[in-house]
Fold:
Amino acid sequence: MMSKIVRTITRLVTPAIMVFGLYVIMHGHVTSGGGFQGGAVFASAAALLLVAFGSGRVKDYMRIPDLTAISASGALVFIGAGFAGIATTFFYNLFVGSAIFGHVPEFGPAHEDIWTGGVIPIMNTGVALNVVAGLTAVMVVMAIASNKTRDGE
Amino acid sequence: MPLLAAFLTPLVGRIGPRVRNTFVIVALAIVQMLVIIVARDVYANGIQIYTLGATAPSLAIPETHMVPVRIILEVDGLGAFMGLMGATVALAGAIYSISCMKLETGQDRFYTLLLLLAASMVGIQYTGDLFNLFVFLEILSISGAALAGFRTRFVDAVEGGFKYVIVSTVAALLVLISIGMFYGQYNLLNMAAIADAMQYTVIDKIALALLVVALLTKSGAVPSHWWVPDTYTPAAGGTSPIIYGASLTCLAALFRVVFSIYGLKLSLSLIGWVVIIAGLLSMFVGVTMALRQTDVKRLMTYHAISQEGYMLLGVGVGLAVLGDPQAVAAYGREAIAGGIFHVINNAFFKGLLLLTGEALFLQLGTRDLNKMGGMGRNMKWTCAFFIIGALAISGVPPFNGFASKLMIYESSFQLNPMLTIIALVVSIMTLASFTKVFQAAFTGPEQPEYAEVGGVPLSMKIGMGILAAATVLFSLFPQFVVDTIVYPAADALLNQTGYIGAVMGGA
Amino acid sequence: MVRKVVIGLTMVIVGVMLFTVALMMRPFGEPVSIMDDYIIENTQQVTGANNAVSAVVFDWRGYDTLGEATVLFTAVTAVVMLLRKRKDEASE
Amino acid sequence: MSAIVTNAPFIGVAALACVGLYIMLAQRNLIKIVMGITIFESAVNLFLVSLGYRNEGIAPIFTNATGTHMVLPVPQALTLTSIVIGVATTALMLTFIVLIYRHTGETDARKSRRVKG
Structure:
């Protein structure tokens, strides 16, 4: 548990970090960024919470089994997107040219169009779930463990 | 779609955390089946390639372009062979683990990691892409380290896991640097394409040195063998044979790199002799260290190092003469085949021995040979399995260990008789050391404090039984096994042109 | 003492190797780009994505990313497993 | 001589790698060893990224791009992958250190490990 200033600032900043993380994830196929980067940004919000409020409070509303389940399901979304194209080949980009995310931009500089990229946005989301939940789980577990170690000594 | 196995394994690993033992076994059995299907296909039709994400699986190189862009899975004889090995060992280890892990917590994750380890073993063998190899190597090392450190209440388990992760991370980083060197020069990541473009510059030589060092380290050959016993000895339940299988996988990855990427462009005799000397040292140091051990699993681990020496010796002999077609035909091919045959034999009987050692530990609560005795009466099955494994590993004639060692002896004799003599001496020392274990653990007066120890649970018997059955099967039909699966694997290593041609098309 | 020699030797060998590579490598900023040119030219048509890096990560080399996600998942599983509460601990 | 100037980034990478390696080998504290590995790893990542640099190239993103003279995208993707892998391994190594510390109350390699790496 840190001082009041830190906690207040954390309250203010955390939603902004999360929104920014989401933006990076959603626009991963259009601007720089992507599931991994956005996921890491998102997880840094969790890290901030951990530092500011201590592992004791955070672990009450972030439960490890849930986090692992989310992580696994994110990976499942990813691999599911890969399998979607198995009729042609594994990881075949199925949705290019279809109704979902199917717009195909012209070669060369193009303007922002979020409905592009075929299967990539979906994979991005899956990976992001994986990263967010995974990193958060690791941090929470390690925070708890190191606290326990310190108290035990 | 011959390569479904490779896709299916990671998927199965994902579902793992939520479903339990039966599912794991079913999944591994399915993987085993798919691996066998793939292997049959490869042996029937030659190298199979599968381009991920292309409009057609066989479209390795995009039209209008000269080099492969996407990741290509490429399965040749060696890949199929090693996949078979990995899947079998993983299956046996998993079955074995079911009953002996009952007392532990965190089983869900244990099985997840076990599946991931199995997946990565198959993945390493099937990939045709260098970077992909690196990625799977990392999966392998992380899951392996975690499994090694699974019994967190023992400090040696934790330390073993830590060593494993440090060693493999450094090794993987060295691999990554060499990948960067290839990429910088040729802008390629596909192994076949790199082999095609290879000009054998100074940078390539350095990359080769780094790769050889890294992969030898990971497979635990002698200059860097010190981590092996610490990691295997405390490894939990059925995992030690699987981790051992993982080491052998790294060994196979080394063969793949040396033969398929560098192939004839090497200064062969030099590298060949480096490999041979590493092999000899491994053999000798491993077995002498083993003779001094009283910890039953540690002893077996040192034997594992020593046996790895045989494989390196066999393949090294083949490598040393690779440039000379006559010598290859005369004994090089046989040497390589012997080395590879020894890999799979060893995975089976060494895995079996490690499992029996683990069974002793679980039932008696100690790994110290001096405290054991008379267990032949109480643990009849374990005793029988141990005898099979021990005879096979020391190369006693009817068993498969003899068949593969004979191939290595014969061929290495033609290169240099000294090699054969050392190998024979090591073999005898192996036998001596296992006789000692047998006497200490299974015969002799019954120790009063272990009078109530019963036999092992059923699933452990099945797990050991699978490996024992494989050992016996290979012993009964060595010629058949060698002809159907070993020689194709050896030929796959020798046939670098075919490996390149499958991807680059008509090269 | 032996330790220091070993460290020194390793450092010298690896250092020489690395610096040789650094010097022998083709000039910085002028990469060979057979594979990458193809990707830059074809990314938009084939994958429909504007961000070529994302396209490489998820489409051209999707299998690597699968492996990568698996690595992360493995590590998470491993960490959670290793730091789990043990039975003997829980009973305290 | 000219190679030293043009390949300065690669030389920097090599130097960084040597620093990491030295820390890895010479330090006794487990956490410092992990730090050494991390430094080595960043050197490798930098190596990969710098391999993909093209003189006066722009980021390989077509949105609002002015041309197609771009930095190579593949090394960036590879680096992304290897960074994530690095995070994973570092987490695992630190976990092991926490466990070792719990058992021995030490993070010193001399006391908690029989063989030194």
Summary: Residues 87-92 of chain C have pLDDT under 50 and may be disordered. The radius of gyration of chain C is 23 Å. The helical segments of chain C are 2-24, 34-47, 52-60, 62-82, 87-90.
